[in-house]
Amino acid sequence: MKKDFSPTFLDFGPVQIYLARHFGFCYGVENAIEISFKTVEENAGKRIFLLSEMIHNPLVNEDLQKRGVEFLMDTNGNSLIDFATLTADDIVIIPAFGTTLDIENKLKNIGIRIEKYNTTCPFVEKVWNRAETIAAKNYTIIIHGKPRHEETRATFSHSANNAPTVIVNDMAETIELAKYITGEKPPELFYEEFKGKYSDGFNVSHDLERIGVVNQTTMLAGDTQAIADYLKQTMADKYNLSDDNVEERFADTRDTLCYATYENQTAVYGLLNTDADLAIVVGGYNSSNTSHLVELCEEKLPTYFIDSPGKIIDKERISHYDFHNKTEKETTGFLPAKDPVKILITSGASCPDALVEDVINKLTSYFAITKTAEETISQFA
Ligand code: SF4
């Protein structure tokens, strides 16, 4: 019930854990998992499909597959099962990220009742609504997101249905996009440079005259703010506008991060105020929100991104994910030879809390701890 974002300190003696004030499962993920398991229970004998991974957590996805649920697509949108083999009797669950209008329509045309098994997170829908609101005022939508992420593809599809839309992945791309606003770059270059990231019929000469920014809900808050500020300033400079009238060209959309992303990221800033030796971040390797938590920790200290406690091989070795190079690698000597060793721990929005507990238990098992977990947490009872 703490009101601030300072971490919880778990003192086991020779090993001390700083646990993030907010970590792990969010409302959208819990809701999606609950609906999925209920769907399996209530529909024995029916074929049940998930459009793609329910959430970016391998254990949850494996659990659903063991219960007979099949995936129609991989996380990049590549088909695993041909939609032509589906019938109106089948059940298709839409994951928390939502999906594109094109896929919704394909399923509806087959006769599948998608509304009954739609687990799209309300915070993702809120972004779609925000985009729709500014589209109605004739703003073009700039989405700050990862172009291949399911959620960004879904948001792009919904947004592009209402307004010209373009995706920027990061500040570097935003700076290049701004050059088409200022006229520094010739319009014809845009179509190659932003290939696959703009809506059909996008006219770079007109469609960047009034803009608004929304984001994939799991991006880094500071990055989205910087991107929005940069574009706002670009519009103000180009059209000679002040704070009072910049809205003529730049829609007032405060960032569209969800509460869970905000709280998990803010809690990491709380962790980074400590004197820890290393950080362990638990979550699926293709989880956007988890990789952002890793990014924040990496700026300050050695950080190990793992998707399960099993990745801690022993007291010396850890197998962890380098999301910059998309490879898993093994590091020896990840726990420094000092007393006490101080470790930051957090997890992404699609990571069950039980995994974090298992990670803590595994780490403490390597030390001659002076207090049991029960004793350590009794102070919070
Ligand atoms: S991270 Fe946020 S937007 Fe995504 S499922 Fe969770 S609550 Fe919803």
Describe what this molecule looks like in 3D.
- With 381 residues, the protein is α/β, with parallel strands linked by helices.
- 37% of the residues lie in helices and 15% in strands.
- The chain has helices at 27-42, 58-66, 101-110, 122-136, 150-160, 171-182, 187-193, 221-239, 259-271, 288-298, 353-364, 373-378, and strands at residues 8-11, 15-19, 48-50, 70-71, 91-93, 140-144, 165-168, 211-215, 278-282, 303-306, 317-322, 327-332, 341-347.
- The strands form 4 sheets. It has a 5-stranded mixed β-sheet with strand order 1-2-13-9-10, with helices on both faces. Strands 4-3-5 form a 3-stranded parallel β-sheet, covered by helices on one side.
- Helix 10 (288-298) links the parallel strand 9 (278-282) and strand 10.
- Helix 9 runs parallel beside helix 10 (288-298).
- It starts with 7 loop residues before the first strand and ends with a helix.
Q: Which characteristics define this entry?
A:
15% strand, alpha/beta, globular, binds iron/sulfur cluster, 3-stranded parallel beta sheet, 5-stranded mixed beta sheet, 381 residues, 37% helix
SSE order, one letter for each helix or strand: EEHEHEEHHEHEHHEHHEHEEEEHH
In angstroms, what separates the terminal alpha carbons? 11 Å
Tally of helical segments: 12
Output the structural class. alpha/beta
- Measured as a percent range, the helix fraction is 25-40%
**Biggest β-sheet strands, sense, barrel:** 5 strands, mixed
Number of E-type strands: 13
% residues in beta strands: 15-25%
Oligomer: single chain
Ligands bound here? iron/sulfur cluster
